[in-house]
Write a structure and sequence with these properties.
Blueprint: H1 4-29, E1 37-41, E2 47-50, E3 59-62, H2 72-131, E4 136-138, E5 144-146, H3 149-166
Antiparallel strand pairs: 1-2, 1-3, 4-5
Helix pairs in contact: 2-3
């Protein structure tokens, strides 16, 4: 007796195998047996297509061109070639996507490092401002102009705002 877990694992695989077999079977017989395709407009105004038309609505028989008959070997070879080309394009697209994701991660990491550095610098400036007896600005002639109490409070508030902007909890 097979455990329940094993039966549950086999079910999706069995379904996939049946689906693949059905697709292969249908693909082999598509060119041999083409069914008629009908088009009609249903009661909701939606255009519908099907192989069995409704009896109560006007239908239009669609003319679907048949595939030209060709050598089966050339067709299979062409399919293999197309399959290889498609696989190559898909692998290239995956590689490009991985590269874009890697670059995005690097940009985020660099931005996070800049933010942390700005946080540290802003915190250092707050400590320096709070410990300082006074602040000054250098004048063009090289002399110092000390800030008034009002200017000092505004400068201190500005660096505290920088701390709030750049720092997160845990920084």
């Amino acid at each position: 007796m097979v455990p329940v877990e094993m039966r549950e694992m086999r079910a999706p695989r069995r379904g996939r195998i049946i689906c693949i077999a059905a697709l292969l079977f249908c693909g082999c017989w598509v060119s041999v047996a083409q069914a008629a395709v009908y088009r009609w407009v249903d009661a909701d105004g939606q255009t519908q297509f099907g192989d069995r038309p409704p009896s109560d609505l006007p239908v239009e028989l669609m003319q679907i061109p048949e595939r030209p008959a060709s050598d089966g070997n050339a067709e299979a070879q062409l399919s293999d070639q197309q399959r290889r080309e498609l696989r190559r394009k898909m692998l290239d697209a995956y590689q490009e996507e991985r590269e874009e994701k890697r670059q995005a991660r690097e940009r985020r990491a660099a931005e996070e490092a800049r933010r942390k550095r700005a946080c540290i610098e802003a915190k250092d400036r707050v400590r320096e401002y709070e410990a300082a007896a006074g602040l000054y600005r250098l004048q063009p002639d090289g002399s110092r102009r000390y800030l008034s109490a009002e200017e000092f409070r505004a400068s201190l508030q500005q660096v505290r705002d920088e701390v709030r902007r750049f720092c997160r909890q845990g920084d």
